Amino acid sequence: MVFEAMTPLERMAAYNKGAVIDRLPCVPIVGNTAARVIGVKVSEFQGNGKLIAKAQIAAYRRFRYDVIRIFTDLYGQAEAMGAKVYYPADETAYLDVPAISNIADIRSLQPADPYKDGNLPQHLEAMKLTLEAVGKEVPVTGAITGPFTNAAFLIGTENLVRLVGRNPQAVHDLCQLSLETALRYAKAIVDIGCTPSLTDAMSSGTIISPKQFQEFSYPYIKRLIHYIHSRGKTVTLHICGKTDKLWDLMVDAGADSISIDNVANLLEAKVKVGHRVRLMGNIAPSEVMLQGTPHDVRVAVNQCVQQAYDSPKGYIVASGCSLPTETPFVNIDAMMDAVRKIGDPS
């Protein structure tokens, strides 16, 4: 096991106060790669909170990164509301059939109960067990899918994008239902003692315009973040793809930290919103972490640190999105070793 002068909780607390730290916080966003750490198939996580916890605890102890994120896929909330999710034998799940195919069926949808519906109870169990095992040394977060993205999984992404122009009220209805599920799930996560972490992949500037984001995504994210803040927790918000025209809105919604995808420019983010929010990112999950060499990883870490270490509200070295399942362990090691070698660059 690697010896470090600080635990992740100690490191983050010192960093928040502007005190001396041994190194920058670092978060290779480990999702289903954790299955490889304990030698199980990804599909074995389905309905098995104990196994998810075992894998995530083992991955943290193996790599010693700074945040554990309980996550397997984005579809848990939609599945709990009636969507059908396909679980391949040994890869990340994907949406098979949306909960509804016709807007007339919206009235049949109900917000999910995170203690009863779908796999949400298993993820809550994983959070609880992980927190009990290592929560005194590392932050444990639970992934929540943003309302607009969850709405896309309820009716299908193509249908939702069409409805944005043809029937905006239906989109709002789906987002409201999704928000209610997200609020219930957030409450359950906080009640355990964990911190919600938000991902709103379909709110990307690659999919909808900034104007559409402001109408259909922003109000629901803001209400969700407001609730989480009311429970005394901070919020990291990740939106995939191109988000440069959304950064100010993401901050306005209340995010304490924004996770920058690798297709966005980290230096530009520092200049534009670094004085308002902590930045996190943005090493390429596929091109560098999955397909690159340890040398490539070290180069990418150094480039990101050079660009953002002096961001006024702080910077966390991280992958631009969740790591692919088959990410080589040597590359995750290289990421962690690189930040240890850099230390405190301030």
UniProtKB/TrEMBL annotation:
<feature type="domain" description="Uroporphyrinogen decarboxylase (URO-D)">
    <location>
        <begin position="8"/>
        <end position="341"/>
    </location>
</feature>
<protein>
    <submittedName>
        <fullName>Uroporphyrinogen decarboxylase (URO-D)</fullName>
    </submittedName>
</protein>
<dbReference type="Pfam" id="PF01208">
    <property type="entry name" value="URO-D"/>
</dbReference>
<dbReference type="GO" id="GO:0006779">
    <property type="term" value="P:porphyrin-containing compound biosynthetic process"/>
</dbReference>
<dbReference type="InterPro" id="IPR038071">
    <property type="entry name" value="UROD/MetE-like_sf"/>
</dbReference>
<dbReference type="InterPro" id="IPR052024">
    <property type="entry name" value="Methanogen_methyltrans"/>
</dbReference>
<dbReference type="GO" id="GO:0004853">
    <property type="term" value="F:uroporphyrinogen decarboxylase activity"/>
</dbReference>
<dbReference type="InterPro" id="IPR000257">
    <property type="entry name" value="Uroporphyrinogen_deCOase"/>
</dbReference>
